[in-house]
Amino acid sequence: MEWTVFKLVAWTETYFKKHGIDSPRLTAEILLGFCLGIRRLDLYLQHDRPLEKQELTRFKALIHRRINHEPVAYITGEKGFFESRFQVGPGVLIPRPDTETLVTTTLDLLAREPENVKTILELGAGSGAIVVSLAKAAPQNRFFAGDISKAALDTARKNAGQAGMPNICFFKGSWFAPLSPGPVFDIIVSNPPYIPTSDITGLAPEIKDHEPVFALDGGRDGLDCIRKILSCACDYLVPGGHVLLEIGYDQKHKVMAFAKTCPGYDTIACVKDLTGHDRVVHLKKKID
Predict the structure, then answer these.
(1) Taking 90 as the threshold, does the pLDDT of residue 11 lie above it?
(2) Percentage of the chain surpassing pLDDT 90?
(3) Are residues 55 and 107 in the same domain?
(4) What is the dihedral of CA 112, 115, 120, 125, to 10 degrees?
């Protein structure tokens, strides 16, 4: 049997369906396009193209990786986020569409005073998707980003370089630990781990078996890291500075309640994502 692009996509879609793989058609197209080094659109422009033996062998290996629930982003080595594509790989959290709300909320904040240079810190940089997206959209500002993972920082630096943003200052360490307290930052942003520990085992195998658990596990109630950040952020913010945190869709009330116990904040709000879920907590430091 001669395997053309069209026949192979159709067969792979059916095979993925039988194995319970999400978005089987899209996944088949992405993996075959990656295997052949062409865009998804070109698969249809070349639908009757027969595959060579070595191409079939490479594609078969990709199929087996996906059947074993390896994330598509790890297989292809990249993930689209906001307006760019970012390198990702094992040990680095894959950026999600929900997190784009954190980027757009921060950019809306920066747009209110476009003439003023702001100093912005991201905690838990991961792939660098957030800080690089912010730096590309608002390059007149100063950007810093930290992460505890060397693998994540190496990836973030590569992504910053590929995006033409080599001046982002990356540093290694847990949250604020590498920094000296002082009112330095105008904005602090973070997508911290916020999944309760007991929920980790119930996640899809693509997540629990492949993505870094330390970037997901937020402790017993999911709020350990959020509490650490909110407890310390005021020591690093200028008066009137802002902290924006991504949260779980059902964590708004608990996060807000904790924020009210922190004496440094006087403005508390929550921003919904495009699906209508509470997604970003936005706090403002009091101006003495």
Answers:
(1) yes
(2) 89
(3) no
(4) 80
- pLDDT for the residue numbered 165: 87
Which tokens belong to 272? 């919904």
CB 244 within 8 A of CB 282: yes
pLDDT confidence tier of residue 1, bands split at 50, 70 and 90: low
Which neighbouring-strand residues pair with 78?
87
Cβ atoms within 10 A of the Cβ of 231, count?
Answer: 14
Task: Copy the structure tokens of residue 275.
Answer: 């699906």
Neighbour tally for 76: CB within 10 Å: 17
3-state secondary structure of 59: helix
130, part of any domain: yes
Q: Could you give the CA distance from residue 42 to residue 47 in angstroms, rounded to a whole number? A: 8
Residues 218 and 280 in one domain: yes
The residues with which 143 forms a beta bridge, in sequence order, are 120
Sheet order of strands, 185-190 included: 169-172, 142-147, 119-123, 185-190, 237-246, 278-285, 265-272
pTM reported for the whole predicted model: 0.94
pLDDT digits (tens, 9 = 90+) for 75-100: 999 999 998 999 999 999 999 999 99
Q: What is the CA radius of gyration of the chain?
A: 21
Strands 185-190 and 119-123 turn out to be: parallel
The helix/strand/coil state of 263 is coil
Largest CA distance in the chain: 76
Question: How many Å apart are CA 140 and CA 115, to the nearest integer?
Answer: 9
Beta strand pairing status for 265-272 and 278-285? antiparallel
Note the pLDDT of residue 46.
87
User: Which residues touch 208 (CB under 8 Å, ≥6 apart)?
Assistant: 200, 201
- φ and ψ of 265, to 5 deg: -105, 140
Residue 76 counted as domain residue: no
| Count of domains observed in the chain | 2
